[in-house]
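Final report, closing paragraph on structural work. Over the funding period we assembled a curated collection of sequence-structure pairs, and we close with a single example.
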Amino acid sequence: MKQNYFLILLITAFSFNKINAQSCPEISFVVPLPTEEVIFVFDSPGPTCASRPVAIVIDGSAYVIGNCDTYSSRYVLSSGSGVIDPDNYTVTYGSSSCQYNSGTLLGADDDSFINKALKLYPNPVVNTNKLTASLTFNASAHISIYTLTGKKVIEDKFVQEKSKKIDISTLANGIYIMQMKIENISIAKKFVVSN
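Its predicted structure, as stored:
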């Protein structure tokens, strides 16, 4: 009988940890402002702010949450020298370890070939209202462009195309994140508008 109680207790504890484990957001960017910030963007409404970690660690540097809303979290550098390589870093995010390459979460569905195959130009965007997204192969894909606060500002599609010019005339100067989804793979790239 004691063995059954122990087994039930063990299963309950394991289930509780799995339920409370914080999963890694799909998109993350380092923004070198006067104080470095790390921003996580959720494609759909993310977990509640109360369930997101209060602090994260990257390259031995600590960051504390500065702002949180439905679609994003901002963490501000609180100690340490900051992220060593803003294009490739690993985050301790609650009980999870999340590795990012060029803003995209690496995982079982990651295909680094596709991540490297997406190019955005001109970047920064200066004196034009068009941003070109280019792949090295024909693809059908869904494109979303987000502000750094996680607000979706543009949606578009590739339909068996290698390249697409996207009208960004409605965007103010600033940093934006383009997310491209090809089947079950998500790619994110950062670009700057400076017109």
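The chain has two domains: 23-105, 112-193. Residues 1-21 have pLDDT under 50 and may be disordered. We thank the funder for supporting this effort.
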